[in-house]
Design brief:
Length: 281
Amino acid sequence: MDKYIIVFCEGDHDIAFLSRILLVEGFRPYNEKVKNFISPLNNLYITALKNKRIEDTEFKFQRADIKVPYAVYEKDNKLVIFHNLGGDGNIKANSNKIKDSYLELNDELLRKTEEYDILNYTFLYFLDADDVGVEERLTEMRGLLELDDELKHYELSKKDDYEVACCIFYDVRCPNTHGKLENILLDLMGPENEKIFQNSEQFVIENTLPDDRQRKFLCNNIEEKSDGSKQFKKEKSIISVAGQLQFSGSTNSVIIAHSDYIKKNDIQHNTICNNIKKMFN
């Protein structure tokens, strides 16, 4: 492989969306077993899996270690490796841990032989603007990752011996660039399925529950109570309701990855999708 593109995402919804863009661009899944994965990455992942604990408290026992890819795609001697960071609160700790593990492979290769070509890395970060805004989020990320001016929006920059870039998802209709991935998804899904998404939104609005019922419900032999932060997100719920018409009982990541609410033409004519596409060149 000539290039290894390591992609850090807040969650599996982002990965499902970005996978759609890559598939339209001619990338294909890299379906090797971990033991047969391209060397020396295979040993990195095998080591991570050996140290993985089984966690069942949040029904996440099926998730691999964060150092093990969530999905991988290939094209023209480029390998795109997705890592699910498990939320924006884990961006700094988890992405730095993963990035360091890849960079340490190069250090190891150089120690073994000076004639060995080091791995050519590009690190890409994808996250939501939320209520912060694109420029403010970018500034925040530069500080978190200690990348200063090297971290740019959509544009690859050189940092030491690797390239790096960032994409902040936002609502293109919002003047202060607030928003999130779901705003982009609804722009892609809605226009050709207007009635379905209008009805889905109306259903969500008419059936929105009070705040205390938007939290995790703890129920055991001692107590019953609502706990934690609010889990309701209007846009996510709209996509979920519309998606159930095609994939009953499926998560939003499945809907985003496989629904015909998003077609090839939608992706090819969307400005944000085209900006993202350039990051993988």
